[in-house]
Automatic annotation (TrEMBL):
<dbReference type="InterPro" id="IPR027417">
    <property type="entry name" value="P-loop_NTPase"/>
</dbReference>
<dbReference type="GO" id="GO:0015807">
    <property type="term" value="P:L-amino acid transport"/>
</dbReference>
<keyword id="KW-0813">Transport</keyword>
<dbReference type="GO" id="GO:0015658">
    <property type="term" value="F:branched-chain amino acid transmembrane transporter activity"/>
</dbReference>
<keyword id="KW-0029">Amino-acid transport</keyword>
<dbReference type="InterPro" id="IPR030660">
    <property type="entry name" value="ABC_branched_ATPase_LivF/BraG"/>
</dbReference>
<dbReference type="GO" id="GO:0016887">
    <property type="term" value="F:ATP hydrolysis activity"/>
</dbReference>
<dbReference type="InterPro" id="IPR017871">
    <property type="entry name" value="ABC_transporter-like_CS"/>
</dbReference>
<dbReference type="Pfam" id="PF00005">
    <property type="entry name" value="ABC_tran"/>
</dbReference>
<dbReference type="GO" id="GO:0005524">
    <property type="term" value="F:ATP binding"/>
</dbReference>
<comment type="similarity">
    <text>Belongs to the ABC transporter superfamily.</text>
</comment>
<feature type="domain" description="ABC transporter">
    <location>
        <begin position="2"/>
        <end position="234"/>
    </location>
</feature>
<dbReference type="InterPro" id="IPR003439">
    <property type="entry name" value="ABC_transporter-like_ATP-bd"/>
</dbReference>
<keyword id="KW-0067">ATP-binding</keyword>
<dbReference type="InterPro" id="IPR052156">
    <property type="entry name" value="BCAA_Transport_ATP-bd_LivF"/>
</dbReference>
<keyword id="KW-0547">Nucleotide-binding</keyword>
<protein>
    <submittedName>
        <fullName>High-affinity branched-chain amino acid transport ATP-binding protein</fullName>
    </submittedName>
</protein>
Amino acid sequence: MLKVNNINVFYGNIQALKGVSLEVIEGEIVTLIGANGAGKSTLLKTLSGLLKPKSGTIEYLGEPISGKAPQSIVKTGISHVPEGRRVFSNMSVEENLELGAYTRKDAGGVRKDMEKVYELFPRLLERRKQLSGTLSGGEQQMLAMGRAIMAKPKLLLLDEPSMGLAPLMVKQIFNIIEQINKDGTTVLLVEQNANMALSIANRAYVIETGRIEISGTAAELQASEEIKKAYLGGL
Ligand code: ATP
């Protein structure tokens, strides 16, 4: 579904991604784990068109997408939930969800997906008239995910959905990611919480200072001594 081939991405003179290649197959949950500053967010921003690679290619559903504008990438079915769950704080929950569907013309489908989002996140239904800026951190994360679902993505890019959330909320969010995947959306999940990410992923990549250093099935990575020491807090 998605093939990233040898991309190099710079911020001015600083090279944030160094020859990164990875693949996501339709139906999978793939996770990208790595420490602070490793380049995880940079990769997602590049996939959604916010950054342009200096070299290398990105192919999505058989078509090259590197260099395309973010709006046209959204239309191809890629939806990005950025780190820090940016919601429009002076708009209501429901208005934020409606905005997520702004590229769609199928009003009936949009209404159905709104119901689906409220089913996945009953908390958002309770608070649908509330101003988004007054939601708790976890609720804002739900809203950011809900808004992305409203775009009806084929591929969902999630940037650290667990950040700053209490353990119970993290569990809930990960259950919902699995649910969204079962309903037919492919997921590329960036996480520092490697334990949780590997527990729901099919495959994983580890990125260190801009380079993919390790890749394998989630089970292989969970069993690896190197990964346990560096990322799973184990001995
Ligand atoms: P974190 O988990 O801390 O969010 P990350 O893996 O997502 O980290 P990135 O945000 O992709 O890391 O950053 C990769 C590198 O690029 C870092 O060294 C960072 O300082 C640098 N970087 C990110 N954004 C910019 C920018 N706008 N200008 C210059 N350098 C940047």
